[in-house]
Amino acid sequence: MKCSRIQINLSDYSRGLLSAEESRKIAEHLADCAECRRVFEDERRLADIFASAENREAPRDVWYLVEAGIQTDNKTTVTEKINVWLRTYKRRLAAAAAAAAVICSVAVTINVHNAAVEAEKNRAREALAMMHLQIAGVDQQTSTTEAMIAEIEKIAP
Ligand SMILES: [Zn+2]
Predict the structure, then answer these.
(1) Following DSSP, what letter does each residue of 97-114 receive, concatenated?
(2) Residue 31 Cα, ligand 1 centroid: separation in angstroms?
(3) How far away, in angstroms, is 104 Cα from ligand 1 center?
(4) pTM (2 decimals)?
């Protein structure tokens, strides 16, 4: 299998989403190919960061930078790598939107019930604390994005 074909599947591979047959082919390729092993390690590091970061919508300029990076990049393997990364990232943003909707509904409930129930206020405070954690997570993701863009620019200036 070609390296580009391997690399586009590494994200799913590292998360155990491929069939046994596909996983076996990739494992065999990784055993022989240092370049793909390096990409695989990057994927795993990125996956770890995503797993430990809280969810929140990314600032607009992150999308702008990533999209600009894709548009100016003609190297297929790098573009595919970004696309794989974006797929993962978009799924997490969808999860973040769902979490934000839950937090908003908690806030609305508190207003309707006139803040009489102290326990609900505490839930709102916890929700706020969570949002602060999520903001910290986005800062981390933004740094990761900037680091990736810097890496990509080194490969495909
Ligand atoms: Zn390879």
Answers:
(1) HHHHHHHHHHHHHHHHTT
(2) 9
(3) 46
(4) 0.35
Where do the structural domains in the chain lie, given as residue ranges?
1-52, 55-157
Cα 132 from Cα 130, distance rounded (Å): 5
Task: Tell me how far the alpha carbon of residue 4 lies from the centroid of ligand 1, in angstroms.
Answer: 7
Q: 7 and 39 in contact (C-beta within 8 Å)?
A: yes
CB-proximal residues (5 Å) to ion ligand 1? 3, 33, 36
CA dihedral 54→13→2→154, nearest 10 degrees, is: 20
C-alpha 25 – ligand 1 centre gap (Å): 11
pLDDT at position 89, please?
66
Question: How is residue 54 annotated by DSSP?
Answer: P
pLDDT digits (tens, 9 = 90+) for 111-131: 555 545 566 666 767 777 777
| Cα(41) to centroid(ligand 1), Å | 13
Residue 9 C-alpha to ligand 1 middle, in angstroms?
Answer: 12
78 with 3: CB under 8 angstroms?
Answer: no
